[in-house]
Design a protein that fits this description.
By secondary structure, the chain is mostly helical. It is built from seven helices and no strands. Helix 1 packs parallel to helix 4 and helix 4 packs antiparallel against helix 5.
Length: 150
């Protein structure tokens, strides 16, 4: 029998994936114009890191982490595609900036994985990672405010 929380989780994943698709119309315009103009990619860099951390969180719980891993794998994929489009259609200055941010994301994520596995026992790993996820999710939702600044 399927548990009700699993059904609710699938519904939540569906809604989350829909939110990840919200910028598709803007990216169609970027591709059509062949220019990202002044479009700010900071929110996509932040979301890439947040989703990566949530994947780690889900992997730390093999019993209940499937939904967390799947929705955030979709998020990582979509953010990576958005960043690739921005990279292709942005100025050289912004390409360097986005590339640097993505490298920082990857390095930071690797450091978190290593630190989590070395510094914590199995029971504490998920708590530590969950606190990081909550922090970076907050940052992810605040990142669009950076677009207002420039």
């Amino acid at each position: 029998m399927v548990k009700p929380d699993f059904v609710v989780g699938i519904l939540g994943n569906f809604i989350s994936i829909l939110s990840f698709t919200s910028p598709i119309a803007q990216f169609r315009q970027i591709v059509k114009k062949k220019s990202a103009e002044n479009y700010n990619g900071t929110p996509y860099v932040a979301t890439l890191l947040s989703c990566s951390l949530w994947i780690l969180y889900g992997l730390l719980d093999p019993d209940d982490g499937l939904l967390i891993v799947t929705v955030n794998a979709a998020g990582v994929t979509m953010q990576a595609l958005y960043l690739i489009i921005l990279f292709v259609y942005s100025s050289k200055e912004k390409r360097v900036k986005y590339f640097g941010f993505v490298i920082l994301d990857i390095v930071f994520f690797g450091m978190v994985v290593a630190f989590t596995l070395v510094a914590f026992k199995e029971g504490s790993r998920r708590t530590f990672t969950g606190a990081l996820c909550a922090t970076f999710t907050t940052m992810m939702y605040a990142a669009p405010l950076a677009a207002l600044v420039g």
